[in-house]
Design goal:
With about 300 residues, the chain is α/β, with parallel strands linked by helices. It is about 25% helix and about 30% strand. The chain binds adenosine-5'-triphosphate, 1-O-pyrophosphono-5-O-phosphono-alpha-D-ribofuranose (PRP) and magnesium ion (MG). It catalyses: 1-(5-phospho-beta-D-ribosyl)-ATP + diphosphate = 5-phospho-alpha-D-ribose 1-diphosphate + ATP.
Length: about 300
Amino acid sequence: MSDSKRLRIAVQKKGRLSDESIALLKAIGIKLQIRDRLLIAHSTNQPIDLLLVRDDDIPGLVMDGVVDLGFIGENELEEKMLERQKSNKSYAFETLRRLDYGGCQLSIAVPNEFDYQGLESLNGLKIATTYPFLLERYFENNNINAQSVMLTGSVEVAPRAGVADAICDLVSTGATLEANGLREEVVIFESKAVLIQRDGELSEQKQALVNRMLPRIDGVMQAKESKYIMLHAPKARLQQVKDLLPGAENPTVLPLANSDESVAVHVVSSETLFWETMEKLKALGCSSILVMPIEKMMG
Ligand SMILES: Nc1ncnc2c1ncn2[C@@H]1O[C@H](COP(=O)(O)OP(=O)(O)OP(=O)(O)O)[C@@H](O)[C@H]1O
Ligand SMILES: O=P(O)(O)OC[C@H]1O[C@H](OP(=O)(O)OP(=O)(O)O)[C@H](O)[C@@H]1O
Ligand SMILES: [Mg+2]
């Protein structure tokens, strides 16, 4: 059990989730000095320690109570849950937040020349994967009689190497599949990064720290999606201008020095302003249209 006074957070050391997880912690005000070869990093301004590990280890570290929090992909988390269920190990945890990065899907892909006619075409195949528990659950739920072949890496070369007939691997842009002459046919799991907490009560101090972190995480994610929009608009067309601005229920309208016809409009928008909308605003007589990123938000 984690009995240290400092909140322990597990983060992937090197990979797809590392940079964004660490950037998120920094964005919520946690100062970190990460040195390349060390497993642990101490925050210099909060009672927080980061454990930098392989992502495969993160669900187990949280479920065994070795760390308090962990950043992990839902694919890896669900796979480890299924694995621990089957071997009667505890698999309790709490999801604190679903995050806005690490988006990918676990899909079955076949070689381009394979004549795929639907799920029944998978019967009798050998399918290489790093996620055998998720794949076998999919087989069971869909009455597919196929065999999973566990590979920890280079899954996409398995069909060419004659090790398997098809694969089940993570897909984001599809570039890896394309480069290996494979075609995505079935999405079996959609995933994003999540922040999870171990089961059981945290000490009062640790819980208070987590309670402060979560609204800040929400603020960072919200800010990323939002824009601050400023423009000069003709007074006579103010309503039409407001109608064009996304999520602009309550814009600030300010007088402009030296102009009775125009006003300044400021608005925090829940989405960005597309070029097409900017062109329409211009056509209505708007000028000085600025779209700016927002760093932090608090409701
Ligand atoms: N192409 C992708 N785009 C977005 N997210 C991805 C992509 N590939 C993987 N992920 C997410 O990031 C997680 C980590 O992927 P990565 O490829 O870094 O893992 P890994 O090779 O298993 O690393 P490790 O050495 O830590 O075991 C995946 O489990 C998934 O949730
Ligand atoms: O659809 P794509 O955009 O091509 O992304 C998918 C690839 O990304 C991940 O691997 P990664 O590049 O992280 O390397 P790894 O397999 O060596 O971990 C994943 O395992 C796929 O191979
Ligand atoms: Mg891994």
